TrEMBL record, chain A:
Keywords, ordered alphabetically: Membrane, Transmembrane, Transmembrane helix
Source organism of this protein record: Cecembia rubra
Identification of the protein by name: Uncharacterized protein
Residue stretches spanning the membrane: 94-111, 117-137, 196-218
Highest taxon listed in the record's lineage: Bacteria
Automatic annotation (TrEMBL), chain B:
Full protein name: DNA-binding PadR family transcriptional regulator
Keyword DNA-binding in record: yes
Keywords, sorted A to Z: DNA-binding
Coiled coil: none
Database matches in InterPro entries: Metal_resp_DNA-bind_regulator, Tscrpt_reg_PadR_N, WH-like_DNA-bd_sf, WH_DNA-bd_sf
Length: 227, 114
């Protein structure tokens, strides 16, 4: 095994860039495979071996791999979040859940007017909003070395898991608009004040469970992907 | 005929078995280990390896871990608890298949006879 020269590494990056891979996970795996393989051969065999790799990792192959990986990543996030939520109801974590429920119940029973209910509903939203910003920053920080190595690729490089997580982080904020404004539009003649406390409490509990589970998914996935 | 066509159906079992013996491995390492164990007789193509690894990961049989190696990031695969359980099931399935194949090719053959 030998250390590749900077010129050789540049050659490898150029070859991979032509494949226009946008998934950071696929890009790093292909890049590592190329280097690991080429390190095994002497300098005079470099071009021949690089050509052989190019025959295996074709543009079509890489894009098919990326397409499947992106699809699986989306399903994986969904599946993992469900698993995490289900874990909250397991015996080992029931105290944790009961604690959250008790706090939210107490706060919702203390709230007396519409402003306080809005504040209650806003608390998980703020957590989601802040998480989304931190997620974006960490994602950019993790991708920086890869983006630097593939500078000039001309297409955005992103983690395959970033978009499904980010979408999930912003989804409740959009859904909240529906929760808050839809009842007012539909039940124009009904006074909803007596139900506000229970409604706000329930929505807050769901949102908190959703937010905490998503943050846990992010923590889990940060060990396995570029997020 | 190429060996590659013959091992296509057992690629997942090979990967799981190798990961059972080695705590964690990366893609290229798997191809090299197979080549080394079979003295070059079987070569796992990259075209089949990575889709199989990603599929096993999506099925929850493998878990991954990224590590900084020199100036690049390397993705290591290892077995999950479900993956560990699946290895023995897949191994006995493959052994039974090989036994049946042996019986078809040589009706006189009995397990345990050389």
């Amino acid at each position: 095994m030998r250390q590749l020269t900077n010129i050789e590494l540049q050659e490898i990056r150029k070859a991979i860039m032509r494949k226009e891979i946008t998934s950071a996970e696929i890009l790093m795996e292909v890049y590592d495979h190329y280097i690991s393989h080429l390190e095994e051969f002497p300098e005079d065999k470099f071009n021949e071996q690089l050509f052989e790799l190019e025959q295996k990792f074709t543009y079509a192959y890489c894009h098919a791999l990326q397409f499947r990986f992106n699809k699986e990543a989306k399903e994986d996030i969904h599946k993992t979040q469900w698993l995490v939520i289900r874990k909250y109801f397991c015996t080992s974590r029931w105290l944790y859940l009961v604690g959250i429920l008790a706090i939210v119940y107490y706060i919702s029973s203390q709230a007396r007017n519409e402003q306080e209910y809005t504040l209650l509903l806003l608390s998980p939203m703020i957590l989601l909003f802040v998480s989304n910003i931190v997620f974006g920053i960490q994602n950019r920080r993790k991708l920086r070395p890869l983006k630097k190595a593939f500078k000039g690729i001309g297409i955005p490089i992103n983690s395959s898991l970033a978009s499904p997580i980010s979408e999930r982080l912003s989804l409740p904020v959009l859904m909240a608009q529906v929760f808050i404004y839809l009842p007012k539009l539909i039940f124009t003649n009904i006074d909803l004040t007596p139900y506000l406390s229970a409604g706000a409490g329930m929505v807050t509990i769901v949102l908190i469970l959703y937010t905490l589970s998503l943050l846990e998914v992010w923590k889990l996935k940060s060990k396995t992907a570029m997020v | 005929m190429s060996n590659n066509n013959l091992i296509k159906g057992s690629l997942q079992t090979i990967i799981l078995k190798l990961l059972e013996e080695n705590e964690k491995m990366y893609g290229y390492e798997i191809t090299q280990r197979v080549k080394e164990l079979t003295e070059g007789e079987i070569k796992i193509t990259e075209g089949a390896l990575y889709p199989a690894l990603h599929k096993l990961e999506a099925e929850g049989l493998l878990t991954t871990e990224i590590q900084q190696v020199d100036n690049r990031v390397r993705k290591y695969y290892s077995l999950t608890k479900n993956g560990q359980k699946e290895v023995s099931a897949k191994m006995s399935e493959l052994q039974s298949f090989v036994g049946n194949l042996q019986r078809i090719l040589d009706p006189e053959w009995r397990p345990g006879l050389a």
